[in-house]
Amino acid sequence: MSFGDPNNPYGPPPQQPPPAPGYGYPQQAPPPPGIPPQHQAYPGYPQQPAYPGYPVGNMIPQSMPGLLVTARVFLYIISAVQILGGLVYLYIAAFVNDVSDSADSFSSSSDDPFDGLSDIGDAAAGIIGGIAIFLLGLAALSITLAVKFGRGGQGVRITTVIYGALGTIVGLLGLFIGLDSGMASAVIFPLLWVVFGAIITAAPVVSSGTAWFARPRY
Fold it and tell me: Rounded to an integer, what is the distance from CA 170 to the centroid of its chain?
């Protein structure tokens, strides 16, 4: 019998043709032995490399973190206190200056006691007026930092940290003085100041605050 006869039931089975390649995607040759196959998200298209230096899209904060919002509110509250304090010191400086002018009008010579009182009043009015201007300048800085939280970058972040740290130190000094005096009323305000300063200092330092100020801006 002949095995070459296709009608022979005892012959070997006929060979099947190789499968046709899939439609729409080019076929790739199998990798050499010892090299693992490369998996791709989409067959036939190479995977694009990631761009270094940019955070993943879902890691970019879309809204201001809650701790930064709290620090922003505290900056506005502090600026209001500073404005009120500056206005009060301005009024006191003006009052002292008026008293000094009145004393000067009563002075008849350089040896007159009213002349010395006038000089002291002028010096006190200048010092008090300087404190008022300093407080109003701090109020302007507090408002500027709070406003810049929305669009500011690393400069606003570093300035806020330094500003909050200095405020915390001043609050601690006032707190120690209040505790030494033994008066409860002398402790409340410095304690609040320390809390406000600590939150303002910590908000830009934590990871959420750092990511907020480092986010890309378009």
Answer: 21
The candidate with the shortest Cα–Cα distance to 146, out of 200, 92, 101, is 200
d(CA 65, CA 15): 69
Q: What is the pLDDT of residues 108-119, one digit of tens each?
A: 555 555 556 667
- What is the per-residue pLDDT for 163? 96
Cα–Cα distance for residue pair 193/168, rounded to 1 Å: 7
Q: What are the Cα distances from residue 37, in Å, to 29, 187, 208?
A: 10, 70, 40
In 56-153, which residue ranges form alpha helices assigned H by DSSP? Answer: 66-106, 113-148
pLDDT tens sequence across 124-177: 889 999 999 999 999 999 999 999 998 888 899 999 999 999 999 999 999 999
Phi and psi angles of residue 15, each rounded to the nearest 5 degrees, phi first: -75, 140
Among 93, 74, 207, residue whose Cα is nearest residue 142: 74
| Other residues' Cβ atoms within 10 Å of the Cβ of residue 186 | 16
Residues in the chain: 218
Sorted by sequence, the CB contacts under 8 Å of residue 44 that are 6+ apart come out as: 25, 26, 28
